[in-house]
Design a protein that fits this description.
Layout: H1 3-8, E1 15-19, E2 24-30, E3 36-42, E4 52-55, E5 62-63, E6 66-72, E7 81-87, E8 114-115, H2 122-126, E9 137-139, E10 163-166, H3 168-172, H4 187-192, H5 194-200, E11 204-207, H6 244-257, E12 261-266, H7 283-291, H8 317-333, E13 338-341, H9 361-368, E14 376-379, E15 400-402, H10 404-415, H11 421-429, E16 448-451, H12 460-463, H13 499-518, E17 522-526, H14 554-558, H15 560-575, E18 589-592, E19 606-611, E20 620-626, E21 632-635, E22 644-649, E23 665-666, E24 670-673, E25 677-683, H16 685-688, H17 693-700
Parallel strand pairs: 10-11, 10-17, 11-12, 12-13, 13-14, 14-15, 15-16, 16-17
Antiparallel strand pairs: 1-2, 2-6, 3-4, 3-7, 5-6, 7-9, 8-9, 18-19, 19-20, 20-25, 21-24, 22-23, 22-25
Helix pairs in contact: 8-9, 10-11, 10-13, 13-15
GO molecular function: isoamylase activity
Keywords: Glycosidase, Hydrolase, Transit peptide
Domain Glycosyl hydrolase family 13 catalytic: 165-573
């Protein structure tokens, strides 16, 4: 070991590092504008008075903008937690808006585990002066519990990829989850439910944010991160025992063993520190003008393209490095398979807030990082400042994207809006208008993440049960939440709904599920949609850590028929690779209407198509879609009478909505589609090649 390093420490890696051979810690923290930094180590018995302090000397402990030191464990044998004091210049005019407070206890941005003292106080962090004993602390790395890596290589599904969006706590917090109480709402609670996920058929879970967030911030969803490296302590079976990493890894290992990918919803566009009235926990007190975009306005110094009070300064090289380091950590150490980036369009914003679509540095770095090559990257391609970059507009060439156009078209069409046939064809086909596969662009349909609902809006059941939001409990006078294309099927809400309305709602839910699984691209749906989970009309329960948001597993039994339909539609999609392709359908699809030609007129609500599976060694699939509130007789415009067998008819009640057997043959060349229904017919490759029913029977004799 270099003698200088033993004395002065090293600038890399950032954070706290345990050097077992030296029995010492290396500490490294970035602060370009900081003028005085003090390291604070705490024992478990005294969280107010440090058991060891180290004053950094810029002549010895600073390399460029990075401060570093080396502390032998013999100098602080009782140390368990750590933090910093950082002091620097006062706020300056223009864009150097500093927020230094020499008395504040500051969390290391690279802490891998965060501890909250019993007297932790959000309010104390919002006030000037000391918050000793009330501030979050980093746990020293030698105190963390690890049981080894879950897997060395990520999973990678192809045509069978089906994403299930899930909130860690909400998935198993409800008493009806039927797991041990200690595991309610935890990483290990998910492990208990893996057999259910396998039975449903999903092949990837997308976890809403698991980064540590402020437990007093009234934010259940977790989209207000405090730190980019530490798993949220509340998702551990013992939040104070520093087992978060270990239990997260156990979850990853169990999911991988079941063949399920794990994708993290990550928030690198803002933090929980908010605007100039918000708390100072970490970034703001360490080097505010490095970590956050500033406005130049002293009355509102933080730029707000995230809608949450601040915007991470991702154009800054130090911030970009912290993002890359975080992604590498979750990829290599925690072994996740991919990331979904919240408000990813903020990555395209330059220091002054303008948009750079040519080569935004952070997107370029993520896309070219060798260690992230095999990671699945998914963008939410917009931000709260008005940027909307869906499809080829988003500069991440290999990034998948949440397709909001798909969501809007499907919501409108299924509820009965007219004039959408052309747009519906585009969405089912894979949205090549947004993801063109011409020679210049060569986009592919799996880049389109198709969804009808997500955490950010109504559940699928509420989408067909409410026309008015019921968000009063959120505390914003019912003015919050997205405006979606819902329909209550003739009755607002649940109370007193007639049986005919209940059945229509089930039928509409099945229509959504059916079309989602029949679309080229990557399907995603939110937890509980498969058994009609409700939030009682609240379409923005970001702060509702209660039964409004917790998954009610009793509904699985109440709506077993809907679960059965979802389960079989997922299986059907996976059994027919002709649906989900790496390329667009092109000449393999033929479009029809109720009559032979597609009706693209404004009043039209009918569409049919035949997807030929020969090029994929698959069967042919004929789909009939009637969004009108009256029955329509459709011609079957390919094959002969008796060629097709019926697989799905959402106009019929369970179990006749989905046939497991293949002998329900359609012996005429028309099909009576019920009002608001989707029908799926199947023709085997033998029939396509010219052999008909009697020939196949003779071949089998």
């Amino acid at each position: 070991m270099n003698r200088w390093e033993r004395i002065e420490g090293t600038p890399f890696p950032f954070g706290a590092t345990w050097l077992a051979t030296e029995q010492a810690f290396n500490f490294s923290i970035y602060s370009k504008h900081g003028e005085s930094i003090r390291l604070l180590l705490y024992s478990q018995s005294d969280l107010v008075h440090p058991c060891f302090e180290y004053e950094f000397d810029y002549l010895k402990n600073k390399s460029g903008p990075t401060w570093h030191c080396r502390v032998p464990i013999s100098q602080a044998p009782d140390a368990y937690y750590y933090a910093y004091h950082v002091d620097g210049p006062a706020p300056e005019p223009g864009f150097n808006w500093h927020n230094f407070d020499a008395a504040k206890i500051l969390l290391d941005p690279y802490a891998k585990n965060v501890f909250f003292p019993e007297d932790f106080s959000h309010d104390a962090a919002c006030q000037p002066g000391s918050n000793a004993g009330k501030a979050p602390l980093g746990v020293l790395p030698s105190k963390l519990h690890f049981s080894g890596k879950p897997h060395d290589k990520p999973l990678r599904h192809g045509s069978d990829l089906v994403i299930y969006e899930m909130h860690v706590r909400g998935f198993t917090r409800h008493p009806s989850s039927a797991i041990a109480e200690a595991k309610h709402g935890t990483f290990l609670g998910i492990v208990e439910k893996i057999p259910y996920l396998v039975d449903l058929g999903v092949t990837a879970v997308e976890l809403m944010p698991v980064f540590q967030f402020d437990p007093q911030d009234d934010n259940y969803w977790g989209y207000m991160p405090l730190n980019f490296f530490a798993p949220h302590h509340g998702y551990s079976t013992d939040p104070n025992a520093s087992h978060q990493q270990d239990e997260f890894r156990k979850m990853v290992k169990a999911l991988h063993q079941a063949g399920i990918e794990i994708i993290l919803d990550v928030v690198f566009n803002h933090t929980c520190e908010g605007d100039h009235h918000g708390p100072t926990y970490s970034f703001k007190g360490i080097d505010s003008s490095t970590f956050y975009m500033t406005s130049g306005n002293p009355d509102a110094p933080f730029a707000n393209y995230s809608g949450t009070g601040n915007t991470l300064h991702t154009a800054n090289r130090a911030v970009r490095r912290s993002i890359i380091d975080s992604l590498r950590y979750w990829d290599t150490e925690m072994c996740v398979d991919g990331f979904r980036f919240d408000l990813a369009s903020i990555f395209t914003r330059s220091t002054d807030g303008s948009i750079d679509l040519d080569d935004p540095p952070v997107i370029s770095q993520i896309g070219t990082d060798v260690e992230l090559t095999d990671c699945r990257l998914i963008a939410e391609p917009w931000d709260a400042g008005g940027a909307f970059q869906l499809g080829q507009k988003f500069p991440g060439q290999r990034w998948m994207q949440w397709n909001a156009r798909y969501r809007d078209t499907l919501q409108q069409f299924v509820r009965g809006d007219r004039g959408l046939i052309g747009d519906l064809m585009q969405r089912l086909y894979g949205s090549d208008d947004l993801f063109p596969d011409d020679r210049m662009h060569a986009y592919q349909p799996p880049l389109s993440v198709n969804y009808v609902t997500s955490h950010d809006g109504w559940t699928l059941y509420d989408l067909v049960s409410y026309t008015e939001k019921r968000n009063w409990a959120n505390g914003h006078d019912n003015q919050d939440g997205a405006d979606e294309y819902s329909s209550n099927c003739g009755w607002e809400g649940d109370e007193g709904a007639p049986e005919t309305v209940v059945q229509l709602r089930k039928q509409q839910v099945k229509n959504f599920a059916c079309l989602l699984m029949l679309s080229n691209g990557t399907p995603m749906f939110r937890m509980g949609d498969e058994f009609m989970q409700t939030q009682q009309g609240n379409n923005n329960p970001y702060n509702q850590d209660n039964e409004t948001s917790w998954l009610d597993w009793d509904l699985l039994h109440t709506n077993a028929d809907v679960f059965r339909f979802f389960q079989r539609m997922i299986a059907f999609r996976k059994q027919h690779p002709s649906i989900s392709r790496s390329r667009f359908w092109r000449d393999d699809v033929k479009w029809y209407g109720a009559e032979h030609a597609v009706d693209l007129s404004a009043p039209s609500q009918q569409l049919a198509f035949c997807l030929h599976g020969g090029s994929q060694n698959d069967d042919d699939i004929y789909v009939i879609i009637n969004a009108a509130d009256t029955p329509v007789e459709f011609g079957i415009h390919e094959g002969q009478a008796g060629d097709w067998t019926r697989v799905v008819d959402t106009g019929r009640q369970s179990p006749d909505d989905f046939w497991d057997a293949s002998d329900d043959r359609v012996n005429i060349v028309t099909y009576p589609a019920s009002a608001r229904s989707v029908v799926v017919l199947l023709r085997s490759g033998l029939l396509r090649s010219g052999k008909h029913t009697n020939e196949i029977a003779n071949d089998s004799d």
